[in-house]
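Record type: monomer structure entry
Structure origin: computed from sequence
Chain ID: A
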Amino acid sequence: MLKGRHLVEPGDFSVEEMETLFSLAEHIEQDETYLRESCRGKVLATLFFEPSTRTRLSFEAAMLRLGGSCLGFAEPGSSSAAKGESLADTIRTAACYADAVVMRNPKEGAALLASRYSSVPVINAGDGGHHHPTQTLTDLLTIRQLKKAAGVAMAGDSPFLGLTVGCCGDLKFGRTVHSLIKALSRCPNVKFILISPEELKVPEYITGGILKKKGAAFLETSRLEKVIGDLDVLYMTRVQRERFFNEEDYIRLKDSYILTAEKMRLARKDLIVLHPLPRVNEIAVEVDADPRAAYFKQVKYGMYVRMALLASILGAV
């Protein structure tokens, strides 16, 4: 179904296709030997022009667990990009060696450009402040599995029906937030509460071009304490130093929101707290012990869903 397909942004896969991936990832979670050798002989190229820990390692762990192998680079200085090679030529070269390419790049639209020059599937691992679709798959799988574990009935065809999702922090440059909103806006009756300082609000192309266009309910506010009690999911994000041109602006805004145990006392008992990581100080370490903190479970689910994705696009299932 997904064999040979690119994944540049969340809309590239239908809701039904994502649900099939989630079911496959759930199967892998329950039996980690499932699909263990399904990609033997396949090679994944990981091209990271920006730093990464979880995304790069989870893709590499996923490929190795499927029996395949990996090659690539973790920063552009170790590639011919440092010599001025174009992205198109880098992708053409990697496609000669690999069966699929995972790429992170600081420039918006880089993944789309790569997909146009690649002879093998390209998976976007983050393009600037634009999209991060496999993080969105991770986020949705985490919500789905934790709601199921809590015994929440899956209403209709969507396990996300009726959720109130709060996104907090850097919503202007946060590609994980942009991708999550785009994916969840396709699900019925999901409400978004967008919590940020004025300078880091969600861009108009998200609020106007996606939320309003789809008729999705949303509220913008600068007060986390005011709305945390209304949330089913709280998606925390860090203020990203690397996206700022002005260091003074970063320093002024970096501590805008810090989730503490005191604030968690205002939240529902079944709240799910997510974070794409890395965190800096926007979630106090004391919150880690709260059973509602799911960001390290989220890391594990990221590996499972990437195993399901790679097996699918490489034709192993």
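Annotation 1: The chain has a mean pLDDT of 90.
Annotation 2: The first helix runs from residue 15 to 30.
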